[in-house]
Write a structure and sequence with these properties.
- The protein has one helix spanning 2-101.
- It is mainly α and 102 residues long.
- It is rod-shaped.
Length: 102
Amino acid sequence: AGSKSTSESAAMLRTVAVELTDLEGRCMALNVANQAAGNARADNEALKLQLHESEARFSAARAELNAASTTLAQMSSRQEASKQELAAAAARADAAEQRAET
């Protein structure tokens, strides 16, 4: 009976050893997955930072575009006023010429 008990104990120890090896493998796989998740979080943070930087550059470019658009509208308005002044001056010159001829 003692030898059967030893044999059963040995079988149980082998089973426990196999289970421990399996658990060790699972732990290693979990560690690898955890490390990958950590790397993914770091990548995500880096991408968030890049996104914020891109948004800031986009906002700055939009502000520049708006300023340029405002400047262009002002220049167009001044050009139109100059055309009107030129037309008025031409009309005055024509009127003066008419008076001079008569």
